[in-house]
Specification:
Helices cover 41% and strands 11% of the residues. With 71 residues, the chain is α+β, with helices and mostly antiparallel strands. It has a two-stranded parallel sheet. The longest helix has 13 residues. It is flat.
Amino acid sequence: PQLAALLAPRRLLVAGGVQGDGHPVAREALEDSWTDARAIYRLLGSEGHLTVLGEQAPDELTRRLTAMESA
């Protein structure tokens, strides 16, 4: 997440996460891990360009990516 802050203010969508043991990361834990990057996006006035989601079905992820591209 800290390296991803270098992408700010570009749009970034993070969908899901996996722990070292292969289990999915809970959405709340995933959100918490992105607080530093979110602060950089906020500092640059582009907090809305960073989207952190839990696991997504492929069709939902495709819909979100398409919407981001159109924005």
